[in-house]
Amino acid sequence: MTEPPKNIVEIKNLYKSYHRESLVVPVLYDITFDIAEGEFLSLMGPSGSGKTTLLNLIAGIDKADQGMIRIGDIDITNLSETELAAWRANSVGFIFQFYNLIPVLKAVENVELPLHLTTLSKRGRREHAEMALAMVGLGHRMDHYPSEMSGGEQQRVAIARAIVTDPTILVADEPTGDLDRASAEEILAMMERLNRDMGKTIIMVTHDPRAAERAGVRRHLEKGYLNHDAAQNPL
Amino acid sequence: MMLLKILFRNAFHHKLRSSLTILGIAVAILAFGLLRTVISSFYAGVDAASTTRLITRNAISIIFPLPISYADKIRQIEGVKMVSYGNWFGGVYIEQKNFFPNFCVEPQSYFALYPELVLDAGQKKAFLNDRKGCVVGRKLAKKYGWKIGDTITLKGLIYPGNWDFVLRSIYTGRDQTVDETQFFFHWKYLNEATKKLMPGLADKVGFYMIGVIRPDVAADTAVRIDKAFQNSLAETLTETEKAFNLGFIAMSGALVTAIQMVSLIVIFIIIAVVANTMAMTTRERTGDYAIMKTLGFGAKDIAILIFGEALVLTFTGSLLGMVLTFPATRIFSQHIATYFPTFLVSAQTIYMDIAASMIIAFLAAVIPTRQAIRIRIADGLRRIG
Q1: Could you read off the pLDDT of B9-56 as tens digits, one per residue?
Q2: CB-nearest partner of B296 from A88, A109, A112
Q3: How many whole angstroms separate alpha carbon A32 and alpha carbon A10?
Q4: Dist. CA A60–CA A67, nearest whole Å
Q5: E strand or H helix at B54
Q6: ipTM
Q7: Which residue of A100, A114, A122 is in closest CB contact with B296?
Q8: Looking at chain A, which residue has its C-alpha nearest residue B7?
Q9: B9 vs A105: CB contact, 8 Å cut-off?
Q10: Domains of chain A
Q11: DSSP string of B237-293, one letter each residue
Q12: Which among B116, B144, B149, B269 counts the fewest CB atoms within 10 Å?
């Protein structure tokens, strides 16, 4: 009998609200759920439902008002800003809707960027970056600037940058939102491969049902509440 | 290294904006450098003053003369090595706009006291032997095209009439700081003419130049000289050459202060220009900085990027401005040599240019850096797209 995969993300009673001067805008209410190691999870919901906020909290780029988020063995809600920055550098890979590459850096330099926070040598950094770019099929575009690449290629560079540090989790915020159908399919297929072949835990925010279908588990947010009937992808 | 690469590429990413900002900084530093050079030129006489020379004048005012008989008494005073004397002649060449400093002096002692005025031995001898002879500086001779043997006529404004001189010698400065625009002639020539025209002004000198044996006895010697003429009809005021020259600058104090103020205003204007550029670039790169923070880079790294970019732009512009200051100063000095005989870019001006650049870069980057560091990552990411 095989042991069920252990949970890599545990979220308990999470609350988050935004403060606009004297106005308090609640965004997330009492969110509790787990993500198993190697899971490909999609978070769906309409605009303003709190998907990106929840993703930001899991990725450690925003702070919860209340509740606990444990990633691996670390409760990130107790970390200071500096500790969170160091934790993000080691543990999280980011894929954004608008690729968010540094425009003045070449593809290979963009991928190398997070490695500058590691102890790798210059040569080691370059080798890792080239390997990551080769994995996403861009070994031939290393010396190109983002402005010289298509949207799909830029998103593949962003994926290479996300995986180059071998993070614990990959978070993707609308990764296909700015792409045409064909490029979107390529990116989703690549994320599937990362999940299936490399065992990467992926949390993806999307409001595109076709993108969500590629995830193993789908969860829905509605006005800040989590729908607990998580759908398992029959595929 | 990666941060350096990013900040250099960021600095020149918008070529037109960066070029205009650099040009603005260069012009401002050029203007600042020229204004500081004007101020330095005011003080050039002070800096070049000898520590072994004293100036004695009438205690009431420099416009009142002293008797020539004081020369012998001064020579007897302890600490005095050499005495010379002279008068301000106040003549102009052909018309009033052709103004330059002109003095009658006791030539033998004067040129011995002022070794920084270098005369050819043969020319000097010819000058000493000719009562109507004169000596002019190299720049002055060049300006009016005078050659040895030429007759030069000055129109006297204090001593009326046309005064003819024969150019016997052209002196050069020992170094670049020496004024080469002066005109000297024999005190005896003026005195003999004055005896006939204005007997009341005869046998009088405007000031004594006194050489002392050592710099450390200058102050005591000055006191002894003034004491020797206490309660006389013409009491004296003796100062070091430096103090005497500073007294002249004090008369132009308001002008010097105004120039200093303008030079500071130039710096403030360029701080505003660079601050505006930095605010624009930082606002445009809010997303980039948010990404870097997301990836784990800290506030220190963001500050390095913004301050570094400001420094790169400012230093590039400043370097250009500093390089341009030298030819600009040469061009200016050709046109204003009469007013600023030693118009040279001093090392102090260059240091002040560098200090100004650093201040500009620092102040221009402070607020954008603070904003970039304080913005929440989520808010920064929201600005992309």
Answers
A1: 999 988 999 999 999 999 999 999 999 888 888 777 777 778 899 999
A2: A88
A3: 8
A4: 14
A5: strand B53-58
A6: 0.90
A7: A114
A8: A104
A9: yes
A10: 40-62+91-232 (3.40.50.300)
A11: EEEEHHHHHHHHHHHTHHHHHHHHHHHHHHHHHHHHHHHHHHHHHHHHTHHHHHHHH
A12: B149
